[in-house]
Amino acid sequence: MGKLQTVFVVLNMVLILATIIALPVGRASQRNPRTYIFGETANLTTWPTGWAFMLSWLSPIWTIGAFDSCVHISEEAANATKAVPFGILMSIGSCWLFGFVVVIVIAVCMSTDLESILSSPFGQPMAQIYYDAVGKNGTLGLMSLLFIVQFLMGLSIVVAASRQTWAFSRDGALPFSSFFRPISKSFGYIPFRAIWGCVFLAAMLGLLTLIAPAAALALFSLAVAGNNVAWGVPIFCRVVWGQKKFKPGPFYTGRFSIPLAWTAVVFLAFGIVLSMFPVGGPNPTAQSMNYTVVINVAIWGGALLYYFIDARKWFTGPKITINLDELSEEQEEALKEEGLEVQGTDSGMGRSLDEETVAVKSEKTT
Fold first, then answer.
1. What is the DSSP string of 340-357?
2. What is the pLDDT of residues 6-56, one digit of tens each?
3. Buried residues in 301-326 as b, exposed as e (16+ CB within 10 A)
4. Which of 132, 142, 127 lies closest to 109, judged by CA?
5. Cys-Cys crosslink for 169: which of 7, 74, 97, 180, Cβ 3.0 to 4.6 Å?
6. In what side-by-side order are the strands of the sheet with 340-343?
7. Strands 345-346 and 351-352: what pairing?
């Protein structure tokens, strides 16, 4: 899978380079001045200009939304404690750098008639920008490459989502966990059932986009809100309740850790609120309404009901392993305060199970 990911990254770079070369060449005599690029603003919504500017953040927030894929496949990574943080930083940093360059190139080469771009007969503003610069054949080539890269991006997300699904199933946290938990030996020790479960679920959700543009917008906004909750909750729990149990890894920001964590929590909460707003204006119609809030309430409410009605009776948390010799007395005390019992054997070479790890299990039954 690592080799395939390398191919995916290379194709992404090919698309970026093709765009930043083809657009300026094709629009050599019709480029926009720097005053338009950096000084021109346009509010095509009925929101106040200031809030419309804030809503424009949804695009970059959504764009960088898959950097956590490194975490989901960390169990398959070598030297994960260093490789995963480095991968996250490289993902976000690459998006910032190349995204900035691409946006500048598009602003230089796009038509100043924004309405004509947004109402393009092609149905895709980017296709219209390509067409204005490189004509029909060039647009077909670039858009075909774009479709391929988008498909490969989807494969990457399936890889990450299937590993996360398998991890939750391994811990018994999902409905039908016993079905999705097995690893397929025939296909090279992969979570085969979890992979295809994610594929079928994604296909069913994808069909919703065929209903109306509002459904597609809701799904895209759901990705922002869902990811932000998934990232924000553990960060918040760590700084509020987990300080005594926290053990810094090889990649640690030191005294900046807590300020960065609170900054992240505030920004993620802001992004969740932002993703719930209808982008067109404060008085949406049924067609322009942002239904993300409805979908999120259904998912989050359903998950909470599932836990309080049934899962709390048997789910005791993730199956984790720790090295007892690395636990401080303060960390052991914090675990006991939460009703967690550390069980293991003394091998004569330090407290351990199989000389390496011990299981942490909950004494709670509710």
1. EEEE-EE-SSSEEBTTTB
2. 788 888 899 999 999 999 999 988 899 989 989 888 888 889 988 888 888
3. eeeeeeeeeebeeeebeeeeebebee
4. 132
5. 180
6. 321-322, 358-362, 340-343
7. antiparallel
